[in-house]
Amino acid sequence: MLHNPESTRPALTGPFPRPRRSDSMQALEVLQSTFGHTSFRGQQETIINHVLDDQHALVIMPTGMGKSLCYQIPAIVHAASNDRESAKPNLTLVMSPLIALMKDQVDSMRRKQVDATFINSSLKRNERESRYTGIAQGKYDILYVTPERFRKPEFLEVIGERSIRLLAIDEAHCISEWGHDFRPDYTRVGEFREMIGSPTTIALTATATPDVQKDIVRQLRLNDGDMRMFHEGIDRPNLELDVVNVWDDEAKLAEIKRVAALPELQEGSGIVYFTLIKTLARFSDLLRKQGIDHVCYHGDLPRDGRRRIQNQFMKGKCKLVLATNAFGMGIDKEDIRFVTHADVPGSMESYYQEIGRAGRDGLPSVCTLLYNEADLATQMEFIGWSNPDAAFYERLYELLVGNQEQVQAFGLEWLGEQLVQQSRHDHRLETALAMFDRHGVVADNFPPGCFEVTGKLPDSLCDDAHLAEKKLSDQKKLLALLQYVNEEGDRKKFIHDYFGLPYEVKGQ
Predict the structure, then answer these.
(1) Among 9, 334, 483, 485, which is least packed, fewest CB within 10 Å?
(2) Alpha-helical segments (H) within 315-421
């Protein structure tokens, strides 16, 4: 079995001095002086030295086990040579889809006296331009960006003033069309990588099946054997996995209350995940009527509201959060004692990633999936919305090309009326416009850019066989979740088998 990293970590005692700038600086020095840890976990040191030797790496490591150190420490080591670099100072570029978390990551780095920053759409123009100037002048050692930033000529011009020694791709499963959280812009990462000189690349994720692992390497435009895989396994021995069959909301509510009230869970906090915002709101009302204190987090809240709720939860001011899957990416709270799924998740990957937020301190934690067969219909709808057929893409293209006057006047609402007959909640239009944006069919994913046709409809969006294959892949992911629910044996073994990993029964 792959080595399982220890589940505890030394306490930080910062702030720490910036490491001395010397060619003899080693990864362990940085770990101790900057991050306050005395030793590495699992394969961290091997990964870091591999990257410092200018070798590519694919890192699959459980949530909370220290993936980010695998690129942060090389970034600091590379930056240490900048004092003698007269032409283009070294810069580590971190590509991430998580705008909401970039500030938290950068703030954490800066508290450790690491010169890091981010550039994304949340910045005002003057802030963005100020950071561009700083980058061009050699400021900053680590830069966090979204893949969309590579479309901006001014961004490419600015980073052309730096030597990109390392490209880190966070949440790398987003690269793969077959991954559970596919992001269209991520499929251009190989192109973006070549734009910046094909630097040493490290791709990191908590979850990737063998097919997704191969696709990540392919999308990076690397050959088999170019990228070494480091797999830390997915075993979390302190997590208790349970599935409870429920028949209605009353039974779900009873189970949520039961888990939250378990004596051994009273010293920590918990998350209850819902698929739909309206369901979350309904359960919130029910819990409040019974005097159970909690906060709610979902994507429809304003950004400052989401941040306020996240801070309340992280600081322990409220121990229970009801959330959609918009909550949790990058949540590094060690005392989450339970994660309950009130609805069936869409895939084994997303389920495993979400339960991985529990028990990061190594103490026992409970992960409960409440299964109601009726919930499968919602996930099947999501799969349909995420996978328009060729006829839908072709019809949308025709509308954009042949009805510019109506489109410009009435926008997305008019387009939706022409295309979406099934339900007012049908999201195929949003999916199709995002794909048009990815393939350069339209100028931008958002109005008014998405109404301006700038390219031809690509063959891949007219290929029903390919589109059907992608839809079938998503359906198989949901089927695997259903098989997990019905598993009568060891559910942890089931998860290992799904991800193509060996499994060792404890005590044997």
Answers:
(1) 483
(2) 348-355, 376-386, 390-402, 404-419
For 385, the token pair is 């919305």
CB atoms near residue 332 (< 10 Å): 15
Distance CA 2, CA 231 (A): 7
**pLDDT (tens digit, 9 = 90+) per residue, 67-101?**
899 999 999 999 887 755 457 899 999 998 777 67
Task: Say if 182 falls within a structural domain.
Answer: yes
Given 231, 257, 272, the domain boundary residue is 231
* Average of per-residue pLDDT across 134-141: 93
Euclidean distance between CA atoms 434 and 88, whole angstroms: 35
Cβ contacts of 223 within 8 Å, gap of 6 or more: 217
CB 154 within 8 A of CB 39: no
Residues 352, 291 share a domain: yes
Q: How many residues does the chain have?
A: 508
Could you tell me which residues are beta bridge partners of residue 230?
Answer: 59
Q: What is the pTM of this model?
A: 0.79
CA pair distance 78, 141, nearest whole angstrom: 8
**Residue 449 exposure: Cα atoms within 13 Å on the Cβ side:** 12
Scored b (16 or more CB within 10 A) or e, 134-162 reads: ebeeeebbbbbbbbbbbeeeebeebbeeb
| Burial group, residue 503, by CB count within 10 angstroms (0-12, 13-18, 19+) | middle
One-letter amino acid for residue 114 of the chain: V
| Residue 417 dihedral angles phi and psi, to the nearest 5° | -65, -35
Following DSSP, what letter does each residue of 196-247 receive, concatenated? TT--EEEEEES---HHHHHHHHHHTT--TTSEEEEE-----TTEEEEEEE--
Give the whole-angstrom CA distance, residue 60 versus residue 235. Answer: 12
Nearest to 393 by CA among 448, 463, 450: 463
Say if 443 falls within a structural domain.
yes
Parallel, antiparallel or unpaired: strands 90-95 and 227-231? unpaired
The pLDDT of residue 177 is 65
| Structural domain contains residue 43 | yes
pLDDT greater than 80 at residue 191: yes
Residues 223 and 253 in one domain: no
The residue type of 215 is D
Contact 271, 327 (CB under 8 A): yes
Q: How far apart are the first and last CA of the chain?
A: 12
